[in-house]
Amino acid sequence: MWRKRPGGVNTVRVTDEDSKLIDLATDVADKKLFPDANDVDQAGTIPSAKLDLLAEAGLYGLFSPSDVGGLGADITTVRRIHETIAGGCLTTAFVWTQHGGPARAAAMTDGPMHDAWARRLASGEARGGVAFAHLLRPGTPLISATETSDGWKFTGTAPFVSGWGNIDVVLTAARHGDDVVWALLDTTEGPTLRSNRLRLAAIDSSMTVELRFAEHPVRAEQITLIESFDDWFTGYRAGLRTNGSLALGITGRCLRLLGPSPLDQGYATARSRLDNATTQEMPAARSEAATFAVTAASALVASVGGSAVMLDNHAQRLAREATFLLVQGQTPEIKQQNIMRLTGL
């Protein structure tokens, strides 16, 4: 097991550069992502050129500390840029944000995985995805880790892994008793690693797959961390704010297309509550942001009229994406909050 390295995306502040980074992300989102977002949505796979734009702008470095060549951006800047890119093209943003997991894992680990991946992931030369959503499912673990004489074997299924075909490494979690074993695995398929393409109602071009592990060998050097499930879940709940930026991004784009409306104040309120929520308050704040995105998208559809359901219209895509965000990155508490808000119960 490798020792955690100190540091992370919010440990080195470069506040003098914050506005420049946000302006850069806004330029990319408005001029290069949003105009083609409907085409990307319908393409079936995300064009690598869209991810290249983010790499060329240095935005893959958003997830890495400066000591490995990343931007070392403060957390407020990270959140605002997530929101901005999501408002440009959620499909592109979704694949790009998954990169944060392996980038942080490589940067915060001592050992071969740090040397092999940290700087390449920080620059965007290499790109990563994640396979850990299954940890939130109750019952028998979907992926189990068995220790061997020279490492581990992973067996089971990761039901949602995005970016397949555009990622080089996937940060994978497996259960070993009460612990979670984390490993950086390359994405080469073979007899012990197979993918099955999933078709989604929104962000289908993200190339989301079901990833199957059949006693997949994992070298000891590929392990980045072993931690208790309780420690992981505590940290996960503390980090739920980040995914809220995706909903804010969809809302912001809808409101820009809709024009001035009474919804504008609700947008500012949703962001403020996300920013100021405690860990205990975060499920409600996340739910407020997600359901408000659905409201904003529905208002846009209604204002556009019949053409809103045409595939070349942004309104229908944004409405589908807002619905997708109701189920993305949620916990049981967020799910219950969503149901309560949408049903009035």
Q: Specify the structural class.
A: alpha+beta
Largest sheet composition? 4 strands, mixed
Our Rg estimate from Cα atoms comes to: 20 Å
Main sheet: strand order: 1-4-5-8
Low-confidence stretches: 1-14
Tell me the number of structural domains: 3
Description:
It is a single chain. By secondary structure, the chain is α+β, with helices and mostly antiparallel strands. The protein folds into 3 domains: 15-127, Butyryl-Coa Dehydrogenase, subunit A, domain 1; 129-228, Butyryl-CoA Dehydrogenase, subunit A, domain 2 (Beta Barrel), CATH 2.40.110; 239-343, no CATH class. It contains 13 helices and 8 strands. The chain has a 4-stranded mixed sheet. Strand 4 and strand 5 (179-186) form a beta hairpin. Helix 4 (75-88) packs antiparallel against helix 5 (90-98) and helix 9 (241-258) packs antiparallel against helix 12 (314-324). It is globular. The termini are far apart. The model is unreliable at 1-14 (pLDDT under 50).
Task: Describe, in short, the structure shown.
It contains 13 helices and 8 strands. By secondary structure, it is an alpha+beta fold.
